[in-house]
Write a structure and sequence with these properties.
Number of strands: 2
Largest sheet: 2 strands, antiparallel
Strand order of the largest sheet: 1-2
Shape: flat
Order of helices and strands: HHHEEHH
Radius of gyration: 31 Å
Helix content: 40-55%
Length: about 180
C-alpha cells in the first residue's frame, strides 16, 4: 500500500535532515542522527542509501526526457537540412544552360555537425584512447622513486594538455653497491 502524502513528507524531511548531517561529517551513530527517528546507525545508513538511489532514478528520468527532446529537435533540423545536402543542384552557365551538378557543401557540413551532436548526446562515439609511452615511443620505464621524483613526474604529466613542454627524462634508482663498494 502506498504511503500517504503526510508519511511521504515526513520521510522527505527526515532524509533531508539526515543528508545535511552527513554532509557535515556527522557519523551514523551520533545522537543527532538517531534522534531523527532511526533505530540504529544501520537503519540510518540504509535510509540514506534509499534516498540517494531514488534521487539517482529521478535524475536518470530527467536526463532521459531531456535527451528525447534534444533528439526530436535534431530530427527536425536534420529533416530540413537533408534534402539540400543530398540533392544535387544544377550548375548553369551565363546563358542559363545546365553544365553540371553540385551538392551544397554547407548543407553537408550542417548535416555532419547535426550527426556529430546526436552521437555525442547519445554516447555513440567510441572513447578516445590515450597511451603513454617512453622515449622514442618505446615502453614506459617504471621504477620506484622517492616522493620528490614522483611529485616532479606528476607535475610534468599534468602539463601534457598544454603547450608547455614536459620533462620526459626518466631515472631509475641507483643500483645497490655490491660488497666491494662498486655498483
Amino acid at each position: 500500500m502506498p504511503w500517504s502524502k503526510l508519511k511521504q513528507d515526513e520521510v522527505a524531511v527526515r532524509r533531508t535532515a539526515l543528508l545535511k548531517l552527513r554532509r557535515e561529517g556527522v557519523r551514523y551513530d551520533d545522537e543527532r542522527i538517531l534522534s531523527l527517528g532511526y533505530n540504529s546507525p544501520a537503519t540510518a545508513r540504509s535510509d540514506l542509501k534509499r534516498a540517494l538511489e531514488a534521487h539517482r532514478d529521478e535524475e536518470r528520468a530527467e536526463v532521459s526526457v531531456y535527451r528525447q527532446q534534444e533528439n526530436e529537435r535534431l530530427d527536425a533540423l536534420l529533416e530540413a537540412a537533408w534534402p539540400a545536402a543530398t540533392t544535387p543542384k544544377p550548375i548553369r552557365n551565363k546563358e542559363g544552360d545546365v553544365v553540371g551538378e553540385e551538392i551544397d557543401m554547407r548543407a553537408v557540413d550542417t548535416v555532419l555537425r547535426l550527426m556529430d551532436r546526436r552521437a555525442k548526446l547519445n554516447g555513440l562515439d567510441m572513447p578516445v584512447k590515450a597511451e603513454v609511452t617512453g622515449a622514442d615511443g618505446g615502453p614506459l620505464a617504471v621504477s620506484t622513486a622517492d616522493p620528490d621524483k614522483l611529485a616532479a613526474l606528476m607535475a610534468a604529466t599534468s602539463r601534457l594538455d598544454t603547450n608547455q613542454p614536459a620533462n620526459t627524462a626518466t631515472s631509475t634508482p641507483d643500483e645497490e653497491d655490491n660488497e666491494d663498494g662498486q655498483a
